[in-house]
Amino acid sequence: MPAAAALASDRRAVSGQTDYLPLRPLPIKERSALVFLEYGQVDVRDSAFVLVDKTGVRAQIPIGGLACLLLEPGVTITHAAVALAARVGCLIVWVGEAGVRLYAAGQPGGARADRLLYQARTALDESARLKVVRAMFKLRFGEEAPLRRSIEQLRGLEGVRVREHYRLLARDYGVRWTRRNYDPAAWAAADLPNRCLSAATACLYGVTEAAVLAAGYAPAIGFLHRGKPLSFVYDIADLFKFETVVPAAFKAAARQAKGQGADIPAERAVRLECRDAFRRTKLLGKIIPTIAEMLAAGGLDAPEEAPEGMPPALPEEISGDAGHRG
User: Fold this and answer.
1) Beta strands 48-53 and 40-45: pairing type?
2) Which domain holds residue 74?
């Protein structure tokens, strides 16, 4: 199977040698979205990526078939595991309980200097930046943004529409809704719909950051959002939020409110709904092409890649004769 092929690793990696057999990582679009882990040590045993607890190996993880691995409190990870994840292009993210906070993230491969320069140049050109924000508005709401509006004004219009979308979805799913409001420092104090939305958006941000980094862009260089470590991640994730994780969050909240699935925490129920939504919408196959489309809306020419530049983080190599796989 493809994931197993991507996982294949020379046993010499375990013994400390560095002359690995060549790997052919799966393209992001062909991977499963993400997996959350809690309570245990992530390690490499007999070339397999595993989660270990006091009873022994609890689960094997197909790391080469994942886009993102999120580690919750109670998890430690070895150097060998981090190295293998980096080699197969899986982003590792350290998060708070239920994914409410994102503390740190690794980078799955080398950044693309040409794409970083293109992104930064477009973001620094105010005219190009406005064009990108208008393109994002059109993709998100299905209509052209009003003319002669600044980015700040478009941000305000977006906020009004987002609040209305929340209200309508809550009504459709029969969820009691007041407003989007939660405090990460007081997770349990938030109501059920807000906790579900927070857990759902954490899933989306993890997947989106994995795609942004794999494609060679900078998570911090945003267009509508500015000043945050994940500003560009928020920009791109918002384009898919209402077709994936927001309905999933309200669906899970509605079930929990009715007492259905009370045997599992609401946050876990949300993750399962998000997983299904990502598969159904084929999200991972959409994110990177959408990034290129949005940046192209700025109207600036992308710089040529330097001959000594880093290769793509996840190259799509072609081998064998035409018409054959692998």
Assistant:
1) antiparallel
2) 2-105
